[in-house]
Amino acid sequence: MDELETFRAQKDDFYRRHPQSPLPPHIRARFEGLVYFDRNPELVFEVEVIPADGASVPIATSDGLQRIYHRAGTVTIDVDGEEATLTLLAIPAHNGYFLPFRDATSGHETYGAGRYLDLEPDDDGMLTIDFNYAYNPYCAYSDNYSCALPPVENWLHVPIRAGEMAFGDH
User: Fold this and answer.
1) How are beta strands 50-51 and 44-47 bridged, if at all?
2) Hey, is 8 helix, strand or coil?
């Protein structure tokens, strides 16, 4: 198994067996694994992060509240000939970035509220964005969670057919 396959297998095992799984017990008992798009190498980007001012960004949540994040930077990618600039949010007490996004698959092939990526800067200062690792927030599996909703500037008009697909039981 390669790194992506191992990642997906470990995640499925966590969702199936771990007491902190977001799946309710009645679903966990018959859980056979998450559904993913096939690996898509065209949705892996190595980009330069344009630093942002660190300004506070209020982000709406799935339960109607707000959380405050901080704008860490922006990146620009090209998907199917369409250029998109995405806002990266800082992860507190961590050197990485949080990238919540929606795309043209949201609400159809993928979870309607959007998906997430957790990103680590590369050693050379660049950032690899691999949408094959895009994942659903816990609120896609249970109403017991409050999840950050992607800010409007991270709504893509193109489909990102990589990563986790919609979960059928919720």
Assistant:
1) unpaired
2) helix
Q: Extract the tokens encoding 117.
A: 């990526």
Give the pLDDT of the chain (170 residues) as one tens digit per residue. Answer: 799 999 999 999 999 999 999 999 989 989 999 999 999 999 999 999 999 998 999 999 999 999 999 999 999 999 999 999 999 999 777 789 999 999 999 999 999 999 999 999 988 879 999 999 999 999 999 999 999 999 999 999 999 999 999 998 54
User: Is residue 8, in this structure, part of any structural domain at all?
Assistant: no
**With DSSP H G I counted as helix, E B as strand and the rest as coil, what are the percentages for the chain, rounded to 5?**
20, 35, 50
In a domain, 143, yes or no: yes
- Domain span at residue 54 reads 38-154
Domain count, the chain: 1
Which letter does DSSP use for residue 143 in this model? Answer: T
84 beta partners: 77
- Quick check: pTM over 0.70? yes
